[in-house]
Design brief:
By secondary structure, this protein is an all-alpha fold. It contains 17 helices and no strands.
């Protein structure tokens, strides 16, 4: 079966424009991280030059990864995204483990954590008691699941408005830093050598999420190579915004001020706009969290849908509602698990947040395997039509794989025994495989 026939058979129709995928990419990348991780980067950068340069390098490395994904997504467009690429390259068992980890912890954990970020900041502006953050978090999960359940255009419409507000908020920070930086607020830069490897871990974490656009590749109208424009265009915009935001932080607080801040955006806005800045930044972070949450809900359900298409016992997940353009059952399953994590987080907040972080090694492991799948599929399927090819092959894909391998190592090194949580999740998925009927490898349907 050709890639085109597979895309038609998998359910989704080509209902999304280029702007939708760019907005999805920008919205899911610009999350709460840009309001927090600059402090960690500054504390280990050693100089302002290294501080800014690592954000630029992080953007370039993300664009390299986007080029790898663009070739895979344009050659094998599918709602399954990474799951589909891994199935083709390594078989159903490995791709099932990926889909299982994504459904059980990675994507649902991200949705729950983003919901709590939203709840925390909204509760600071509109307090409703000690359980307020959890109440707001649960409400966000339910609301955005319902929006996407109603119709794909409802979800994408929400994404466009949220992303516009999110980008507008970053432009406000940039403007405040460039136009209203008070005199004499900056401190000398901290002494010490730059820990470039550690800094890149934090920077690339803040750029994370761009690969999610692959999950709507089968729904993009027009030539398949347009996915490359969407990914690269979205990441270029994010890189420019990140550089300008961090330059604004530097102008107001200096490197030492950024490093010593627990809420760098809030401190910068307080220094430039006074107490009003604290309310403004709370709303901005809440909007950023909702933007990433909505995008995560859109793309996460498509992995479960693809898995359901391949495993008969999970066929209920693989149903696509053509009238509404959504995998409704997968959206509901994703929301139920995310809500369970929100409820757990309401009582054990620290444990919940750590549990989500424990999945980092699993995430980087599968991102590395997706990079390797490009080499495997080029060798195994040389005759496939490739509307977009990674330039400078094999150097750029190799760079992407090396970067992912380094981040896999770093996530294991910095989490230590906590990484066993991700291993345990994969172990449960491996046990489930013993009870699932695995179809023939030739029958790739999602």
């Amino acid at each position: 079966m050709t890639a085109e026939a597979e895309a038609r058979a998998s359910g989704p129709g080509q209902t999304l424009g280029l702007r939708h995928v760019i907005v999805l990419t920008v919205g899911i990348v610009i999350g709460a991280g840009i309001f927090r991780t600059p402090s960690l980067v500054a504390a280990n950068a050693g100089s302002e030059t290294v501080f800014l340069l690592t954000w630029f390098v992080g953007g370039l490395l993300s664009i390299v990864g986007a080029l790898v994904y663009a070739e895979l997504a344009s050659t094998y467009p599918s709602a399954g995204g990474d799951y589909h690429f891994l199935t083709r390259a390594f078989g159903r068992r490995l791709s099932f483990l990926y889909a299982w980890a994504r459904l059980s912890v990675i994507q649902t954990g991200s949705i729950a954590l983003l919901a709590f970020v939203f709840g925390d900041y909204i509760a600071a502006v509109l307090p409703i008691g000690p359980m307020g953050p959890a109440f707001y978090a649960a409400g966000a999960v339910i609301a955005f699941t319902l929006i996407n359940w109603l119709h794909v255009h409802r979800g994408m419409g929400s994404q466009m408005w949220l992303t516009a507000m999110e980008v507008g908020g970053l432009l406000l920070i940039i403007g405040a830093g460039l136009l209203f930086a008070p005199e004499g607020t900056r401190l000398p830069p901290p002494s010490g050598e730059a820990q470039v490897g550690l800094v890149l871990v934090f920077v690339l974490l803040t750029f994370g999420g761009w690969s999610e656009a692959a999950y709507v590749s089968a729904e993009l109208r027009g030539p398949k190579r347009r996915i490359a424009w969407a990914l690269v265009g979205g990441l270029t915009l994010v890189t420019v915004l990140y550089l300008l935001v961090n330059y604004a932080y530097l102008r107001v607080l200096g490197l030492d001020g950024i490093a010593g801040s627990e809420a760098v955006a809030s401190d910068m806005m307080n220094a430039t706009l006074g107490p009003t800045g604290a309310v403004v930044i709370s709303l901005m972070v809440a909007i950023a969290a909702l933007t990433s949450l909505n995008a995560s809900a859109i793309t996460g359900a498509r992995t479960s849908y693809a898995m359901g298409r391949n495993f008969p016992q999970l066929a209920w997940l693989g149903k696509w509602d053509e009238a509404h353009g959504t995998p409704r059952n997968a959206l509901v399953a994703q929301a139920v698990i995310a809500l369970a994590l929100v409820i757990a987080g309401a009582f054990t907040r620290d444990g919940f947040q750590h549990a989500v972080e424990y999945t980092a090694p699993v995430f980087w492991l599968f991102l590395l395997l997706v990079g390797v799948s490009l080499f495997v599929l080029r060798a195994r399927d040389p005759g496939a039509e490739r509307p977009f090819r990674v330039p400078l092959y094999p150097m750029l894909p190799a760079l992407f794989c090396l970067t992912s391998a380094y981040l896999l190592y770093s996530s294991l090194a910095y989490t230590g025994a906590s990484a066993l949580f991700g291993v345990a999740v994969l172990g449960v998925g491996a046990l489930l495989l013993l009870f699932l009927e695995v179809p023939n490898e030739e029958e790739v349907t999602a």
